[in-house]
Amino acid sequence: MKGDLLLVSSIIVLMHMVCGCPEKCLCHQTSKTVDCRNQGLVEIPSHVPPETLILQLQNNHIWRINQNAFSETPLLKILDLSNNSVSNLSSGAFQGLRYLQVLNLTKNLIHYLENKTFSSLPQLKELDLSSNSILTLPETLGNNTGNITLLSVKYNKLQRLDRILLESLPNLKVVLFKNNPWQCTCHVIGLKLWLESFLYRGGISDGIICSTPENRKGKDLLKVPYEMYRACPPSAAHMHLANIHHHSSEHRSSLKHTHHNEKGESSHSDCEPKPKPRPVSLRHAIATVVITGVVCGIVCLMMLAAAVYGCAYAAITAKYHREHLAPVTEQRSPEEKEPFDSSLA
Ligand SMILES: *[C@@H]1O[C@H](CO)[C@@H](O)[C@H](O)[C@H]1NC(C)=O
Ligand SMILES: *[C@@H]1O[C@H](CO)[C@@H](O)[C@H](O)[C@H]1NC(C)=O
Ligand SMILES: *[C@@H]1O[C@H](CO)[C@@H](O)[C@H](O)[C@H]1NC(C)=O
Ligand SMILES: *[C@@H]1O[C@H](CO)[C@@H](O)[C@H](O)[C@H]1NC(C)=O
Ligand SMILES: *[C@@H]1O[C@H](CO)[C@@H](O)[C@H](O)[C@H]1NC(C)=O
Ligand SMILES: *[C@@H]1O[C@H](CO)[C@@H](O)[C@H](O)[C@H]1NC(C)=O
């Protein structure tokens, strides 16, 4: 045990001397990994070798990440800050990490994120924001989120999530939502629609369990029928649809106003659209039209058949009468008429 410790500490000292490894960290040169786990660090260590690809900072007490904190290590691919005390993320915290693929911020104290925070991470693939205290997420995670395949926001304090944010992540494969106080009032329809389409496209999610309102508590959002949202004001539907299609800033600001409104369904402005009920009723309408069409078609065919049969029968009967009865009467009539005529005369 003592030998091990001695060996480890001598390696640390050696590394530190050879390549400028930060105090308290282990630098593995071949894997270009710097391991600073469980060291009681309160800040991002300095003197991390510039060629580092993996920086492990988990299980420390780091509470602040300064602007340009990682400018010394621009090649980082994996940055693990899980289980720390980060509460404020300055918008330039991750600036310059052009190759960063995995950013793990789980188990921190983050309650707020700026929309520029992840802007300079064009290769970001996995973003773990789980187990924080995030109340709201911005409408975008920046202008460089096209490569994100995994997003975890589980174990936070999110009541809602803007569909626009999710739509700005075209390559998302896994999204983890669970254990948030999701508010399943009118505004959630956008999220429900998105989630249905995401799962349909083969995406993976742990689902959204409603927390409020009371009558939907504990219910899976996907199983809350759209009919429940009938009461949502239709006027809001246009706003929401416009929002989805045009991303108009005017509409966005009007949505933002609604974010501050926590009253729920009783409030009109809180309610987003119910775009889905339309497709549903449309589908019903189409089904009704099709069924009606088929039934009418069958009835029409039967009527046509009956008419044709009737006409044919009538024609045949008429012909028969003409051919077999008419000659008789025609032949007889002159003879019969004459006696009549003569009798009359
Ligand atoms: C989190 O870090 C602390 C030290 O800061 C450690 O004692 C604890 O075990 C870690 N938790 C997990 C789940 O790793
Ligand atoms: C976090 O940022 C806000 C403003 O952005 C500031 O008021 C607050 O003091 C900061 N908290 C810490 C712990 O730095
Ligand atoms: C983040 O770290 C935690 C443990 O600290 C781990 O369970 C989780 O899988 C990591 N997330 C990602 C996206 O790698
Ligand atoms: C970030 O939010 C601000 C307002 O908070 C907004 O003006 C800006 O356009 C947003 N940026 C992006 C990239 O969405
Ligand atoms: C993304 O946003 C950052 C900061 O907001 C800006 O410096 C950069 O030019 C933007 N990139 C693109 C491609 O729009
Ligand atoms: C995704 O990453 C590739 C490199 O892996 C990069 O060329 C591309 O620009 C990135 N896409 C976006 C939308 O940032």
From TrEMBL:
Q: According to the UniProt entry, where is the signal peptide? A: 1-20
What residue stretches are annotated with the LRRNT domain? Answer: 20-54
Keywords (A to Z) from UniProt: Cell membrane, Disulfide bond, Ion channel, Ion transport, Leucine-rich repeat, Membrane, Repeat, Signal, Transmembrane, Transmembrane helix, Transport
Spans traversing the lipid bilayer: 285-316
Pfam families per the UniProt record, alphabetical: LRR_8
By its UniProt entry, which SUPFAM superfamilies does this protein fall under?
L domain-like
Which cellular component, as a GO term, is one annotated location?
plasma membrane
Q: Does the keyword Acetylation apply?
A: no
Protein name, per record: Leucine rich repeats and transmembrane domains 1
This protein's encoding gene: LRTM1
